[in-house]
Amino acid sequence: MSKILLVVGARPNFMKMAPLYFEMVKTPGLDPRILHTGQHYDYVMSQAFFEDLQLPQPHHFLGAGSGSHAEQTARIMVEFEKVALTENPDLVVVFGDVNSTVACSLTAKKLWIPVAHVEAGLRSFDETMPEEINRRVTDAISDLLFTPSPDGDAHLIHEGVPEHKIHQVGNIMIDSLVAILTKIDQDHQNRIVQRFGLTKQRYVLVTLHRPSNVDERDGLEQILRYLNQLASEVPVLFPIHPRTRKNIETMGIDVSFREELRIVEPLRYREFITLEKNAAFVLTDSGGIQEETTYLGLPCLTLRPNTERPITVTEGTNELVDMSTIERQSARILAGRWKSGKIPSLWDGRTAERIAKIVARYVSGK
Question: 5 in helix, strand or coil?
Answer without folding.
Answer: strand
